[in-house]
């Protein structure tokens, strides 16, 4: 079963085992992970699920869509090269493990 580890700004981590096909946003919201809001429900329309993907997992990610790219420019926290929307990252056979850092603020 795929796993995702969320790292809070204070360094604490929470690791979840999730069903294949689950997005990082949905897994976080369903399990009460602080700092991931997912206000738009996963439509890449709000940037409240902004995360920083650790570099060792970056190459396993899908390309950033035009919608995601535009929303990342609207994120509250600083956009970096590792910024992604958690709603656009799905855990599956190709991406069975990932570690992400949650920004200080989403709103």
Structure description:
It contains 2 helices and 5 strands; from the N terminus they run E-E-H-E-H-E-E. The protein has helices at 24-30, 66-72; strands spanning 3-7, 13-17, 50-53, 83-85, 97-101. Strands 2-1-5-3-4 form a 5-stranded mixed β-sheet. It is globular and about 35 Å long. The longest helix has 7 residues, at 24-30. The model has no long low-confidence stretch (mean pLDDT 95). It is of the alpha+beta class and 107 residues long.
Core attributes:
single chain; 107 residues; alpha+beta; 5-stranded mixed sheet
Question: Which structural class do you get from the secondary structure elements?
Answer: alpha+beta
Overall body shape = globular
SS strand fraction? 15-25%
Helix content: 10-25%
Number of strands: 5
Distance between the termini: 32 Å
Largest sheet: 5 strands, mixed
Query: How would you state the average pLDDT, rounded?
Result: 95
**Model regions low in confidence, pLDDT < 50 over at least 5 residues:** none
The string of secondary-structure elements, in order, is EEHEHEE
Report the oligomer.
single chain
Structural topology:
Elements: E1 3-7, E2 13-17, H1 24-30, E3 50-53, H2 66-72, E4 83-85, E5 97-101
Parallel strand pairs: 1-5
Antiparallel strand pairs: 1-2, 3-4, 3-5
Concise account of the structure shown:
The chain is α+β, with helices and mostly antiparallel strands and 107 residues long. The protein contains 2 helices and 5 strands.
